[in-house]
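Justification of computing resources. Each target in the renewal requires a structure prediction run like the one illustrated here; the chain below, 111 residues long, is used simply to show the kind of job we budget for.
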Amino acid sequence: MKKQLNVEIGGRIRKTREALGYSRETLAEKADLASSFIGTIELGAGSFTAETLIKLCRALGTSADYILFGREEQGDLTTIHAMLSGLDPRYLPYVEELLGAYVKSLHLSEQ
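Resulting structure tokens:
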């Protein structure tokens, strides 16, 4: 059971890291951890302290609820938020325009 939980937690960390476009080395630098330790966590081969959890959440821009339990804020907004928070602010208007057009097309296709 513990091993499976570690694998699930590691998978969520990896998913968020990849959504942000971070390498393990980049995440390690942002979280002040060793990249080999990030790899160990992502593979579910090791556990970590509350301090490490806090560092990872801050570096990934996500909540501990998501990392530990898979509870996402209003659907999959945690991953979207993490992706956007790592983006250069000058690109946000373009992302907003694209997202708006996509959501509008979804609504139209449902009619």
